[in-house]
């Protein structure tokens, strides 16, 4: 990546702006991300209420945040693959399928953690 010339606080502010742009783009263009954000908004208060200690609360909230991270990465993979061309290619399909599989594993992680914490 090219050196931007930004250092210190300016670099941090710019990085925050780029991150915010990424959140906005994901929320605008990715239905799954929007759904998971709404799950987070419901799950955080539930975790704070239902968790009996800090570790349980952190696991419950962290599992949802991890799902959002994986969804963002999956969406980035899909955007890059689609940008390179819409023709079918084995590697492009494999990349998209692997991203989807990662989201599925993250969802299973949420389910398992919440089931254990609530049982």
TrEMBL record:
Report whether Nuclease shows up as a keyword of the record: no
Q: Highest taxon of the source?
A: Bacteria
- UniProt key word Transport: no
Q: Which cofactor does it need?
A: Mg(2+)
Supply one GO molecular-function term: kinase activity
Keywords attached to this entry: ATP-binding, Cell inner membrane, Cell membrane, Kinase, Lipid biosynthesis, Lipid metabolism, Magnesium, Membrane, Metal-binding, Nucleotide-binding, Phospholipid biosynthesis, Phospholipid metabolism, Transferase, Transmembrane, Transmembrane helix
The UniProt entry lists membrane topology as: Multi-pass membrane protein
Bilayer-crossing residues are 37-52, 58-77, 98-117
Broad class of where this protein is predominantly found? membrane
EC number(s) per entry: 2.7.1.107
Catalysed transformations (reactions):
a 1,2-diacyl-sn-glycerol + ATP = a 1,2-diacyl-sn-glycero-3-phosphate + ADP + H(+)
Known InterPro entries for this protein? Answer: DAGK, DAGK_prok, DAGK_sf
UniProt subcellular location: Cell inner membrane
What the protein does comes down to: Catalyzes the ATP-dependent phosphorylation of sn-l,2-diacylglycerol (DAG) to phosphatidic acid. Involved in the recycling of diacylglycerol produced as a by-product during membrane-derived oligosaccharide (MDO) biosynthesis.
By sequence similarity, the record places it as follows:
Belongs to the bacterial diacylglycerol kinase family.
Record-linked PANTHER family: DIACYLGLYCEROL KINASE
Q: What is this protein called?
A: Diacylglycerol kinase
Q: Which organism is it from?
A: Thiothrix litoralis
